[in-house]
Amino acid sequence: MEKLFVEIFNLLAIAAIFSFPFLKTKGRGILTLGVISIQVVISSIVALTVFAKGEAQYFYPGSWITGEIPIRIDSLSAWFMLIISFTFLTGAWYGFQYLKKYKNQSANIALHAIAFILVYTALIDICIIQNGFAFLVIWEIMALSSFIVIIFEHYKTDTLKAGINFLIQSHVCILFLTLAFMWVKIKTGSFDFLAITAYTSSQPAVTGIGLFLMFFIGFAIKAGFVPFHTWLPLAHPAAPAHISGIMSGVIIKIGIYGMLRMLLLIKTDMTTIGYFIVTISVITGVYGVMLAIVQHNLKKLLAYHSIENIGIIGIGIGLGCLGVGYGIPVLIICGFGGALLHTLNHSLFKSLLFYSAGNVYQAIHTMDIESMGGLLKRMPRSGYLFLIGSLAICGLPPFNGFVSEFFIYTGLFSALLSNHFLFTLFILFAIFGLVLIGGLALMCFTKAFGIVFLGTPRKKFDEGMVEEKPMKIFPMYLVAMAIVLIGILPLIFMPSIQQIVQLYQPGSAAFTSGQLKSILDILSSVGWYSLGFIVLVATLYYIRHLITAKREVAADSTWGCGYTGDAAKMQYTASSFVRTYRKLAGPFLMIKKEKREACGLYPGHINQVTHPHDKVETWFIEKPLLSIRKLLSRFVFLQNGNIQAYILYGLIFIGLVILLPMIIDNISGFFYLLNRL
Amino acid sequence: MVSLILILLTSLFFMGVVIRTKSIASGRKGPGLFQPMKDILRLWKKGSVYSRTTTFIFRIAPTIYFSSVLMAIFMVPHGNNPGLISFSGDFVMFAYTLATGKFLSIISALDTGSSFEGMGASREALFSMLVEPAFFILLGSLALFTGHTSFISIFTTLHYESNISYMLGALATFVFVLIAMIENSRMPVDDPKTHLELTMVHEVMILDNSGFDLGTILYTTNLKFAMYGAIISNFFIGALPLEISIPLFFIVQIGFGIAVGIIESFMARFRMAHNPQFILILTSVSMLIFFGVLMVLGRFV
To answer: Which residues contact B103 (CB under 8 A, 6 or more apart)?
Structure first.
């Protein structure tokens, strides 16, 4: 049955794309929305059957290049299929409304919609295909079509630049993946994923670690682990809001999927891998949020937060690996379980935040936080939904972010009680990192929400309420409901997560039902206490309402120390809100400041601009590129624009190609002769 | 349940103890122990003035702030009587629930669009971010020391054996006293007595709150002090029976109140720029405790 469904799923996409020429813009939009919805239903059915009935598997014959193509849908694939499908459903819905503002760009929208369907189809196929070659082909389709959806506003130079940056980096990612798959292919002669297991279990642990590192770098570029994250903060602001939401919610998660899949397949020393992943994840998390705080572009800020959350997910994955390595069952449950749950949670709140940011963008046509303010009154729905997203992303109860972070904390604190000295110290480092991430995220989102939505507008925009169409807000409500639901009932997805975690269980570290139950009990009680917290707030607010209902209430201007004029420009800005932090974290950041101070008797216009730069980007990308360019510029004389010269190069090349084997033959003959002497 | 009642009782007079100590230290007689509570009651009876800039967030934030502290208090045990809420890892929820309240109080300050309140909000966000690691590392050390991960089981199994472990208890008390001072924005990080907006942290955030809401916020501060006092008292109570532990609880609370009063009387507020360094010291003291625990347990290398 799965085979039929998967085939229908793919054929639908192809059919939809071929019917595009026969439709008008509106019809194309409705078709895209319809096709995506049906595809979502189909893939959800497949995923749910897998959870209910267990792994499904079938084969396509393939060609002599690829070998047999196995399709295996296990619970890990099913989990990611569900996450991807939900975000794409809300994303397609929201995007349909979002793109109405661009409806005169007919051709552009058609291309966008085709690429959108392709991204979704490719992402789902990536989750189920287990043949290296086919995987890479689909990965390439995914990368190219995400490039097209990102550069929707390609007439803007910045967008195109960010898109090309994305395109190059995703091909570096593909390069690493190709190398890794070829490595296994050469050694075993098969592209089947199972060959990886067969190969690594017969080799010493070092080989497995090497292979994993290769895969890790590839997938880390997609997921945005530091130092491979540099495409994220550029691509997210460039893409339209629904694409940013989907990209941050699920496209980068496909990297996490790849990592989890490889951890399942590669048999090697999991302890080393665990230490490695946790270290890089803590750095990723802290670095991501540290840079997020100083951003002035709302979408860029959210993009850096994706990096932070990838760090949190990574801490979970690494913890799970350590659990497998040391044979501690609690760590396996809490680590992998927390990571999987956080993957889902992050896809929810991050897409919600990006959709709200999209509404803000369409209302005031800028993403510069410094010029915003007081938007809650103009667009209350987007504002309050953004607030829910902010609370959830900071990991605060009663929302879903808290549940998954708590899950990981449980794992960390139980790991702390182990007997290895270095391990304990290391776990302390991870706890420190996670706590710091939480604190910094709180600071970042009080800034983001407070400056954007509260206070008085810092710049004049068109007056009046912004029209918030119910159709545009509806998918956001859907996401917000899921956020609250998981916060209160964290166990609803537990059976599925449990199934996935069991895949990672080696026989030696099987957890007893008692251990599992105690953890589940704690989680469910956390959910109930979160509900209790909501009830407590509601009751107390009601009591407050009862008491103060008959009291005298007056409205006045904000207290200004006696000053009653226009105080909009005197408000705290985003930069001043984080100023002390910026000074404190100065050594880790790279902030260029341009300042014109007041001087002389009649001081003129004063201003100050800060440009936060990414230190990692400068060191790992810009500086090496610069030196390569310097080196290559020495050969610039070759490119002289002279057609005769170019023909000469061609001749030299052809000559070399033909002559070189002959020369080598002669040389080897010469050596042969020498040997004979 | 016991701890909840005790903390609520303490919250009625705690600030009175602090103010009385400060008065005596400065050579005055000072108001009665219940005067601060009477002031709050008076505020609770008043009407309010709201800024036109503010939204619904400004109205609900004090309630959420209060509920978050109340929720945290539910998790604090008293000796071997668990709090209303008790599960392993409850201190994580304790910290995060308090953070929810803080989040709301920070954005409610930004809600006024005032030129001063953002300043307090910014400082509060930074200081609470810096103080968080100290709390977690301290509780991590205690968890490591006792082998448990919930407030109640940590405190009931916390028994001092060697000289080092007494020192650890003293250091932990020190860290908690300072965490309480920072979280409540008192000296030496913030001076609630100054009425210059540029130098305030918490007070400046609530400039626009009035009437019932202001009363709620002030009472929440009292509750928060009593809550931290209750946690500190747990270092000394252990598994003692109630008839000894309850008087001991009050002795510790009053001692804590006097300590706060004395610190506030004889210490000057730090310069704002020096506060982050001071708060980070707490984290290093917690690290010291952590290594001390490792030493006591003999797990060093």
So the answer is: A390, A391, A394, A396, A442, A445, A446
Structure-token pair, residue A551: 């009291």
Tell me the C-alpha distance between B160 and B236, whole Å. Answer: 10
Strand-pairing partners, residue A553, are B48
Cβ neighbours of B243 (radius 10 Å): 8
- For chain A, say whether B60 makes contact (Cβ under 8 Å): yes
Which residues in A259-298 are b (16+ Cβ under 10 Å) and which e? bbbbbbbbbbebbbbbbbbbbbbbbbbbbbbbbbbbbbbb
Sign of the CA dihedral running A80, A82, A88, A91: negative
Is the link from the previous residue into B82 a cis peptide, with omega within 30 of 0? no
A431-440, B101-110, B289-298: least confidently modelled range: B289-298
**Pick from B1, B13, B9, B12: nearest CA to B74:** B1
Question: Would you kindly state where each structural domain of chain B is located, as residue ranges?
Answer: 2-129+149-157+184-269
In the numeric block, which tokens belong to residue A366?
A: 């800028």
Q: What is the SS3 assignment for A113-173?
A: HHHHHHHHHHHHHHHHECEHHHHHHHHHHHHHHHHHHHHHHCCCHHHHHHHHHHHHHHHHH
Asked if A519 and A334 touch (Cβ cutoff 8 Å), the reply is yes
Nearest CA among B53, B127, B83, B48 for reference residue A560: B53
The average confidence (pLDDT) of chain B is 88
Tokens of A630: 């310097």
Are B254 and B102 contacting, i.e. CB atoms less than 8 angstroms apart? no
Q: How far apart are CA A523 and CA A491, in angstroms?
A: 7
* Distance to chain B for A348, nearest Cα, Å: 19
Kindly identify which residue of chain B lies nearest to residue A443, measuring between CA atoms. Answer: B125
Contacts of B64 in chain A (CB under 8 A): 537
- Quote the CA–CA distance of A521 and A525 in Å, as a whole number: 6
Q: How far apart are CA A94 and CA B29, in angstroms?
A: 66
**Helix (H/G/I), strand (E/B), else coil: B290:** helix
pLDDT bracket for residue B215 (50, 70, 90): very high
Residues on chain B touching A399 (C-beta within 8 angstroms)? none
* Higher local confidence (pLDDT), A339 or B148: A339
Write the single-letter amino acid at A381: R
Spatial neighbors of A306 by CB under 8 A, at least 6 apart, are A224, A232, A236, A248, A252, A288, A346, A350
CA distance A546 to chain B (A): 12
If you ran DSSP here, which 8-state letter would residue A192 be given? Answer: B
3-state secondary structure of B160: coil
CB–CB of B10/B230 below 8 Å? yes
Please tell me if residue B201 touches chain A, with a CB cutoff of 8 Å.
Answer: no
> Can you list the alpha helix ranges (DSSP code H) found in A54-105?
75-98
Which amino acid belongs to residue B132?
Answer: E
Instruction: Domain ranges for chain A, please list them.
Output: 280-506+516-549, 636-676
How does residue A203 score in pLDDT terms, banded at 50, 70 and 90? confident
Q: Give exposure, A382-408, as e/b (b: 16+ Cβ within 10 Å).
A: bbbbbbbbbbbbbbbbbbbbbbbbbbb
d(CA A543, CA A552): 17
**In terms of Cα–Cα distance, which of A139, A113, A121, A145 is closest to A10?**
A121
d(CA B205, CA B214): 11
Q: Which residues of A touch B130 (CB under 8 A)?
A: 439
What backbone phi and psi angles, to 5 degrees, belong to A67?
80, -175
For residue A134, the one-letter residue type is A
Whether residue B107 lies within 8 A of chain A, CB to CB, comes out as yes
pLDDT in tens, A240-279: 999 999 999 899 999 999 999 999 999 888 899 999 999 9
Query: Given 3-state DSSP classes, what are the helix, strand and coil percentages for chain B, each rounded to the nearest 5?
Result: 70, 0, 25
pLDDT band at A494 (very low <50, low <70, confident <90, very high): confident
